[in-house]
Structure prediction request, 332 residues.
Amino acid sequence: MGMPYGMQAMLKDGHKMMSGLEEAVMKNIDACKSLADITRTSMGPNGMNKMVINHLEKHFVTSDASTIVAELEVQHPAANVVVAAARAQAQEIGDGTNFVLTFAGELLAGAEPLLREGLLPTEVAEGYAGAAAHALEALEGMALEDSAADLRDPAQAARRLLGPLASKQYGQEATLAALVADACIRASPPKGSSADFNVDNVRVLKVPGAALSDSSVVSGLALRRDVEGTVRLAEGARVAVFAQALDTAATETKGTVLLRSGAELEAYARGEEAKVEALVEAIAAAGATVVVSGGAFGELALHFLERKGLMAIRVPSKFDLRRVCRATGAVA
Prediction:
């Protein structure tokens, strides 16, 4: 059996080479159409949910096309181009990913009979580019100018949110529009500032046991966690944030402590206790009334925090810890 040569020698075992209209172009079109068919039925207010199980065996039940294509782990090169376009749409606009996928599928489905009739792919692409230019020109003529709009006015901002929200939560758009407008206005940079609006400053916290009508906007940061001690209320608080655990110091490697008597054991325990007490005393002396930690609170630390009347909150997520720092102006 002869050795492979040319292109065959550069590709690994199990590869497939495709060429021509039927093998390459049509298979690429079929792959993109299949991807569009998966998400097509999730479009609109009556769109169906999809259950996606990723490689970690995690279940997703959603109608959001961005989440669906992210968890599908698409491998086909042509379909990946469409997925990249949908992701760019989500990053730039925040919505319309399903439209991008469906529209791309329809464009390719319309190109298929033209290619079979003998047109070249470049000719079809030129035709679509001309159609896009004509469509943009027509849309510019249909646009209505509203220069008097004040997007910092909750009523005007809510009115502009009704359409996008109705496509996701039909019948609840009025309630949601008022909440979203209020939250976005509160999180917007000051008027005249050159800073961009940070989408991460608006978060949704779901608490079981209530209805959508019970939703409200909270200025600050809400965490779905209980406090570690018994102190549950702190008004006019000063917050101290620690990225590490608040506990007795531990060595990075295993060590052995040799104690020859009960007095040595008692002195060793008192030394640890004194260090933790000094740490809590320093926090209280700085004026802090709330202590936030990214790690666990040790029993000794929690004991002295309770004695000083300090609230202890554990935030294990580093992303939530960053949000706490941003909301309070702290540096962990």
Notes: The longest strand covers residues 50-53. The two ends are 66 Å apart (CA to CA).
